[in-house]
Sequence to fold (119 residues):
Amino acid sequence: MLRKFLCGNGRKRIDNRAMAGYNIKADYPWIYSYAQQAEWDYVHLKEGSLILVDAFIRNRQVNAKTVCANCNCDYTYPDVVTEFIPYSLEYLANYKTDEDIALEKELAKREEIHSIIGE
Fold:
């Protein structure tokens, strides 16, 4: 039952974006995944993975909270959040294959056995 409600999200980097006169070299929008896709993403993706996302973009207004670096006071300001809600997601490069995951599990099992028997 829990699998039906599983949701994953993460900020993904999009390089070389210019916005409103600022020199922004990267943007980090949220990309959501749900159910089985969220489980696969958790297992297969790692920092630096390259993915192809077929998704719709949702922008929404939020009240963001932050702490002032000068006076350490909390304050809230209006902001816009950009989110990608995928129809599909494809792993392209620098991700863990099923074979990599099986090998990691086998090595972990062997290490556990060696630690138990002391070899």
User: Anything to note?
Assistant: Residues 1-7, 15-19 have pLDDT under 50 and may be disordered. The CA atoms of residues 5 and 37 lie 12 Å apart. The first helix runs from residue 35 to 44.
